[in-house]
Amino acid sequence: MQLTYVFSELGNGLRRNVSMTIAVIVTIFVSLTLVGMGLLLNAQADKAEEYWGNKLQITVFLCNQNSASSNCVNGEATKAQKNEIEQVLSTNAQVASWRLQGKQEAYEKWKEAYVAEDGTEQRVFESIRASDMQESYWVQLENPERFQNIKTAVATQPGVDSVRDLRDVLKPIYFWMNVMKWGAIGVAAFLVVAAVLQVGNTIRLAAFARRREIGIMRLVGASSLYIQLPFLLESLLAALLGVGLAAGALLVFMYLVIYQMLRPTSNIVAWVDWSDGFWAVGWIAVIGLTLSLVPTLVMTRKYLRV
């Protein structure tokens, strides 16, 4: 009998506040979807850093006739200078392996990577020869996080034009991934606040609409939990629907974008997988239930005075 009354009040509350309930569901859905996207972007950034970190190399470019570095005052790197550089690489404990890339190999790779449709750029492309390229040492490190020592050691060697660390190349990628991640989380935070406020308004309106029934229940000695239960169930239902929609959106994104578009066509990085997707879904479920039920408990205590 008591449960019948609770569910009856739940149905009445949903009918009375259908527009507010829909607004709460939509706000929870949008905010949790953005939170989930932020979590996925964070997981993707971690995977990218780990993946690229294990493959990052230091590239030591040698002087050629066009180099303007202070180490290249004598022009092309000599055999003796190369021997000294190789000695540094061979004796440094941080170097796992190294190889010398000749000018012809560098030229062939450059031709594969360089595409010019503009006529002027195409003429510049055709004017470049293999002799214009730089020889370079490609250095694999024992620990990619400890690169500064070997970078400093070779950068000052005669015959070295420059030392490139791929972290400099990847820095813009990490930057924009962080911008998108924190942007999504920042917008989600505002929407979470909006969802909390909407839950509070919904409870306040529902309490006002049921003030007569609540007064009667107080007079007959109904417990606090019994009076609060219909409101808690109403918030729980809205939270579950919002979480369900957000979880569905994240999983659809994982399937269509990650597994259908990115994974089959690009292997430049380790992409997030289903375990990361379900991890994000788990977190948004916890957040969704918390931001719905906690305000409900607080507001019912305030407006129902139980």
From TrEMBL:
Q: Which residues form the ABC3 transporter permease C-terminal domain?
A: 187-302
The record's section on InterPro entries has: ABC3_permease_C, FtsX, FtsX_actino, FtsX_ECD
Alphabetically ordered keywords of this record: Cell cycle, Cell division, Cell membrane, Membrane, Transmembrane, Transmembrane helix
Chain ranges of the FtsX extracellular domain: 56-163
Location comes to: Cell membrane
Top-rank lineage group of the source organism: Bacteria
Q: State any GO BP term from the record.
A: cell division
Q: Name one Pfam family in it.
A: FtsX
Any one cellular-component term (Gene Ontology) = plasma membrane
Q: Where are the transmembrane segments?
A: 20-41, 173-196, 216-233, 240-258, 278-298
Q: Write down the membrane topology.
A: Multi-pass membrane protein
Gene3D superfamilies listed in its UniProt record:
3.30.70.3040
Just give the chief location class.
membrane
Q: What does this protein do?
A: Part of the ABC transporter FtsEX involved in cellular division.
Assembly notes:
Forms a membrane-associated complex with FtsE.
Checking PANTHER family in the record gives: CELL DIVISION PROTEIN FTSX
Family (UniProt): Belongs to the ABC-4 integral membrane protein family. FtsX subfamily.
- Protein name (Swiss-Prot/TrEMBL): Cell division protein FtsX
Q: Which organism is it from?
A: uncultured Nocardioidaceae bacterium
